[in-house]
Design goal:
The complex is a heterodimer.
Chain A (H helix, E strand, L loop, with lengths): L1 H16 L11 E11 L4 E8 L1 H4 L16 E8 L2 H8 L6 E3 L5 E4 L1 H6 L2 H9 L8 E5 L3 H5 L9 H16 L7 H8 L5 E11 L18 E12 L2 E6 L1 H10 L6 E6 L9 E18 L2 E17 L8 H29 L6 H8 L1 H7 L3 H8 L1 E12 L13
Parallel strand pairs in A: 1-4, 1-5, 5-6, 6-7, 12-13
Antiparallel strand pairs in A: 1-2, 2-3, 7-8, 8-9, 10-11, 11-12
Helix pairs in contact in A: 9-10, 11-12
Chain B lengths: L1 H18 L13 H11 L6 E6 L8 E6 L5 H13 L10 H8 L5 E4 L2 H9 L3 E5 L5 E4 L29 H11 L5 E8 L5 E8 L5 H12 L9 H8 L11 E3 L2 H9 L3 E5 L5 E4 L17 H30 L7 H11 L6 H21 L5 H18 L5 H15 L4 H21 L1 H17 L1 E2 L2 E2 L50
Classes of the chains: A alpha/beta, B alpha+beta.
């Protein structure tokens, strides 16, 4: 026992001698807020958006001047035949250790998206230092350009992009945001299709918002915006959907949360008078039915909402008008959905993931038509739409406001 | 390992202590007064405060002498004795016994017969007046001691908002009376002993018969009696002699200045040890959770008490872990911090020269120095220290870029949390352990913290206080006691006493059942 004790002293002391093992001080790591992957001829170009903490936090920290003049982020790229090598090459110019877990967004360049993104997905899942919950986005052209754009009033463009995607998802459900793990799951499903929001710089194309001077203006001439929904099939992008088509897909896939629809008034003769309907809950259920000449998808939507503005001649609080208005809304939703489905058929991409439902319900039939699904099966699948809309509230007023002295 | 070495050192040092025995076979009292006085003054080494007053005014009575120590006796009472000795009228021509005569003239309080010189000396040193008579082999002691003592004041170390404001003083009989006043029952047993060959300090052990566990009582009694030391100046001496585990940083006896806390402890089966000369009274056995309870918990409403207990348990954890968690997460696990927080932390760390571990150590040590200085320095300079501490070491250090602002916040919060722990001895234990955990956190991250906490927990589980498991009633689990542990249920629900201290007399409410041991 005594000998054991004596032996353990040097062992315990040796533990202390290891020093601080894989310790990294906060001022030794370079926090990355956005990552961007492009394809070059030889391989990959990885672009990083470094956070410059003292410029962001106007606090008291080490640098006492509240970083008004410094740029909140620094962007630089490195190239290599594989992603990991590209990152390793970055150490030839980065003074700090790259720290990925806090990256909010991954932007894929068009070239990369067109060729194949399987490498990227594999890289993300294989390594522990990358997080699968980053928002994935696509951009027209070189993705590295996107990282250089400042998005006022947010100081961190990467975070701002992730926020834009999230706000879109939350407050109008036009372009559902997608995270790395969702993308992987979608691509790996039977339908093998995923929609990824596409960001672009719109406005005066020459005046990119790269300079800090832009932060001093009240309106930047160019803005980052989500414009379309890029569609991935298996491993590459095959086309895009417009906003209206994307909304239809959102309705079909039960992604709608809060969304505003502009509807023609029930009593309007020329169709110029409109009211807007804002959903506050929506539920879409899809069932599949096999028929002699293919499959029929029964899509039933239940939506509840309120009227948030009205220009209608009739009083919408009146019950018969209310029912008529509901009918109109139902038609509009149906229209969105069929447009979305048409677009899916056009791109031969099963965005509503009907394939998974068929696979689940009719596994035997599915294995037969699997290979020809996009080309034939999808095209012959019929959609039966059933929409049930309830207007929960008409708001604080009933009749449309008209200053006629009455 | 270190523990074993220390234990060995202790064992080796024990016999040395015991060799220092007290002198002398008993010395008989001499027949003549002169000789007796000579012997006494010789033993007292001609100390100038040892007074011997000879009275030879009465022809019909033998010459007597009164010995006492100046300042320990009440002079008025002494004068009364002298007066009555000179004026007492004797029964008709009978030569009375000195004893009955003394009984007549001496004031209330016990009069005891002394037969040896040693007992005279100890009575005199206790503050009694000893009366020797010429031609007698006996002496008589009269309790006329009057010690200068502090009046009862509010306890300075354990204050409450609601609850009694009286605190113990340095005088043991006052302290005992404060307890007696709260427990008017004959079941309160008081046993006194004298410890310390030079200090001869009076130590009192008290418990409630029928509630306190007999085996615990006899264990404490045995441990107290086995103390061999020359001095006991404070109850801390006793605590270190009788505690279960000398090497544990965790205290296994709790000390308090509050008589109400003592009364509460006695009613739950604890044994109290009072030591003369200190207002700090020991209670044993004690479990870990009692260090986080306050006597006020039972006076305030139960909802507030429960909330405050929650705050205290939380601040216990904060005080133990916050600096090490900060070090571990900010140097090893940055992915655990939300991005915006991380950015602001990173901005503060920009340009600070030291690694987080060093920074934390520096600040913690600085705080400990300020704290220690605050206790030791003269009261008058108090404000100066707080200015220097707050402005120079806090604000200026951050502005100079030596320390990050977040670290100052972490250290201050830890310090404040430490003050929220009601028992100083437990707070002190955590203060020490915190540094070890910080070192582990700086070396191994969260893994290191866990590697530190698991042994601490194992140690706590293995620790006992006079046979009571330290972590009871959580390990071993007793559901009934959970009603008054992390929460405090309203009094009507607390029908039983905590079971860790006592098993026999559990019911404390409900008039249908007879209560044993209590009248």
């Amino acid at each position: 026992m005594r000998r054991f004790g004596l032996c353990s002293i040097p062992l315990v002391l040796a533990l202390l001698l290891t020093g601080c093992w894989n310790r990294t001080e906060l001022n030794e790591i370079g926090l990355i807020s956005a990552l961007c992957i492009d394809r070059s001829e030889e391989g990959w170009i990885v672009t990083y958006q470094f956070i410059n903490p003292s410029a962001i936090s106007a606090g008291t920290g080490g640098a006492s001047k509240a970083g008004g003049g410094e740029s909140p982020v620094h962007v630089f790229s490195s190239e290599g035949p594989t992603l990991r090598e590209a990152i390793d090459v970055s150490y030839t110019e980065s003074p700090r250790r790259l720290y990925f877990p806090h990256a909010d967004v991954l932007v894929l360049g068009k070239e990369a998206a067109r060729k194949s993104i399987t490498d990227v997905i594999d890289f993300y899942w294989r390594n522990t230092y990358l997080r699968e919950n980053v928002s994935v986005m696509i951009t027209e052209g070189q993705a590295s350009e996107m990282l250089k754009q400042l998005i006022p009033p947010e100081r961190l463009p990467g975070t701002a992009m992730a926020h834009i995607s999230r706000q879109t998802d939350h407050f109008n459900s036009n372009f559902p945001s997608i995270k790395m793990y969702e993308l992987t799951r979608s691509l790996d499903s039977q339908s093998g299709v995923a929609g990824v929001p596409q960001v672009e710089v719109v406005g005066e194309s020459q005046s990119r918002i790269e300079s800090m001077d832009q932060l001093h203006k009240t309106s930047t001439p160019a803005k980052v915006r989500i414009t379309e929904l890029a569609v991935f099939r298996k491993d590459r992008s095959v086309g895009t959907l417009t906003r209206n088509e994307s909304i239809g897909i959102s309705w079909l896939t039960d992604k709608i949360r809060i969304s505003a629809l502009s509807i023609t008034c029930p009593g309007s003769n020329k169709g110029t008078e409109k009211f807007s309907f804002q959903t506050f809950s929506a539920k879409t259920k899809t069932r599949v039915r096999k028929e002699a000449d293919g499959f029929t998808m029964l899509v039933s939507v239940k939506a509840k909402g309120r009227i948030s503005e009205s220009n209608c001649p009739e009083n919408l609080a009146n019950l018969s008008n209310l029912r008529a208005a509901e009918k109109e809304i139902e038609e509009v939703i149906k229209d969105y959905m069929s447009k979305g489905w048409e677009a899916s058929k056009r791109l031969q991409a099963d965005l509503p993931h009907f394939a998974d439902q068929i696979h689940r319900k009719y596994p035997k039939e599915w294995s037969k038509i699997k290979d020809q699904w996009e080309k034939e099966g999808m095209q012959s699948t019929r959609l039966v739409l059933q929409v049930n809309v309830t207007i929960g509230q008409t708001g604080m007023s009933q009749k449309t406001f008209k200053p006629d002295g009455g | 390992m270190l523990g074993r070495l220390l234990k060995k050192a202790l064992k080796r040092s024990r016999p040395k202590n015991s060799t220092q025995t007290r002198t002398d076979a008993p010395i008989e009292i001499r027949m003549t007064l002169q000789e007796s006085i000579q012997t006494l003054t010789h033993i007292m080494g001609n100390s100038t405060d040892f007074m011997v007053r000879k009275i030879s005014g009465r022809e019909d009575l033998p010459e007597i002498a009164i010995c006492y120590i100046e300042g320990l006796v009440d002079t008025n009472l002494l004068n009364r004795i002298l007066e009555s000795w000179l004026t007492v009228t004797l029964e008709a021509d009978q030569m009375p016994g000195i004893e009955s005569l003394l009984n007549k003239i001496l004031p209330a309080g016990p009069i005891s017969k002394l037969h040896t010189t040693q007992s005279i000396i100890s009575a005199v040193l206790d503050g009694k007046a000893v009366i020797l008579a010429d031609g007698m082999k006996e002496a008589f002691s009269a309790s006329i001691e009057s010690l200068e003592k502090r009046s009862i004041e509010e306890p300075s170390s354990q204050t409450v908002i609601r609850g009694p404001k009286d605190g113990f003083t340095e005088d043991i009989s006052t302290n005992l009376s404060l307890i007696r006043r709260r427990l008017r029952t004959p079941s309160l047993r008081v046993q006194s002993m004298v410890i310390g060959s030079y200090t001869n300090t009076k130590v009192i052990m008290a418990y409630i018969e029928g509630i306190a566990d007999e085996s615990v009582v006899s264990e404490i009694r045995a441990r107290l009696q086995s103390i061999e030391t020359d001095s006991v100046l404070e109850s801390g001496y006793i605590e270190e002699f009788i505690q279960d585990n000398t090497l544990s940083p965790f205290p296994t006896l709790i000390n308090t200045e509050r008589p109400d806390a003592v009364a509460g402890g006695l009613l739950e089966g604890q044994v109290v040890i009072l030591v003369d000369g200190t207002p700090f009274v020991l209670l044993a056995p004690v479990t870990f959770f009692r260090f986080l309870h306050s006597s006020e918990d039972y006076y305030q409403r139960y909802d507030l008490s429960t909330f405050l207990r929650g705050i205290r348990f939380f601040s216990f954890v904060i005080s133990l872990l916050l600096p090490s968690l900060y070090i571990a997460i900010s140097t090893f696990h940055q992915e655990m911090i939300p991005t915006t927080l991380l950015i602001s932390l990173a901005a503060q760390r920009e340009g600070t020269p030291l690694p987080a571990l060093m920074e934390a150590f520096m600040m913690e040590i600085t705080f400990e120095i300020i704290r220690e200085a605050g206790v030791r320095m003269p009261r008058v300079i108090g404000p100066a220290i707080s200015i220097v501490g707050a402005l120079v070491l806090g604000q200026a250090a951050v502005q100079a870029g030596l320390v990050s602002g977040a670290m100052v916040i972490v250290v201050s919060f830890t310090a404040i949390a430490n003050f929220a722990i009601p028992a100083f001895s437990m707070a002190a234990a955590i203060r020490i352990i915190r540094f070890v955990l910080m070192l582990l956190a700086g070396t191994f991250g969260l893994y290191g913290i866990l590697a530190g906490i698991i042994p601490i927990y194992a140690h706590l589980v293995s620790l006992t206080s006079f046979g009571v498991p330290y972590l009871s009633p959580v390990t071993p689990l007793r559901f009934a006691d959970l009603r008054d542990l992390f929460v405090r249920l309203p009094w009507p629900f607390l029908k039983t006493r905590p079971q860790d201290m006592n098993r026999r007399n559990m019911v404390r409410q409900g008039m249908n059942r007879p209560q044993q041991g209590k009248k």
